[in-house]
Amino acid sequence: MYRDLLKILCCSSCKGELKLEIEKEENDEIISGYLTCKNCGLKYPIEDGIPVMIIPQK
Amino acid sequence: MGSVEDAYLTGDKRTEKVRIFFSSIYDKYDITNKIMTFGLDIYWRTVALSYISMGSNKSVLDIGTGTCDIPLYLIKKGFKGSITGIDITRDMLKVGYKKLYTNKKKVNLIEGNVFTLPFKDESFDYVISAYTFRNISPIDDAIAEVNRILKKSGLFILLEISIPTNEVIREIHKKVFLKVGPYIGGILSKNEEAYSYLPQSLLSFPARNEIIKKFYLAKFKNCRYRDCTLGTATVFLGNK
Prior knowledge:
Chain A is mainly β. Helices cover 0% and strands 43% of the residues of chain A. The mean pLDDT of chain A is 95. Chain B is globular, with a radius of gyration of 17 Å. The interface between A and B is medium-sized, with 20 and 24 residues.
């Protein structure tokens, strides 16, 4: 994913703002890291350049 | 997995079945699709995409982007805006990611669910979805989500294979699409059971007028549809 996505991306569950943590970045592309909801705390991984925005099953 | 009954499941159960189904055929999806529709899937996609202004600097979301044929087509045709693709099936996205990466194209891909789209309100000028909504149930909720994320006056373009309205053509189509297509798809993918799901998903999909009603219920305006190739595919359109 690219940083511009953060302007429109939000938490799948509560639609809250997301905080980005980068583990690996290559040529402006975020390859791995985490997106954490500032509102409800849900944490979504970024794996192989693709954020996994599926709400985890309880 | 991929049985006839699966086409009538709803909610999370349907979503999970669809995810497993597409995970089982992801590596042969492109070629099998083309053979099953006699290559017409590409033409129908071109018709659907003709409603997007190619030179414009707008934003597009492709729901059920799969192996990323729509993002790649938009880039090839000179689309200057931002492109985002979302899909529930990671294996399909991986194929798409590789295609984009090989072509050095900048597209944001997301693994996500259409019922809980991870986008802020009014994020996109266009939302397009091709051959995806017949795998979704209940589609009313999905159409409402699309309305939420579209900008004011934004356009929703929904492309689906259809049952022809003409009786004679419908009978021929039934034989070809329900029998020959799954047979060929089964041989190619070595998964005949999975391919019996595809035609059944078409039979369980609401009629044209029902889809238009659902668009209006979700507060879309100027809702209309356009049949392609004797009504074997339909493009539905609605403005926010």
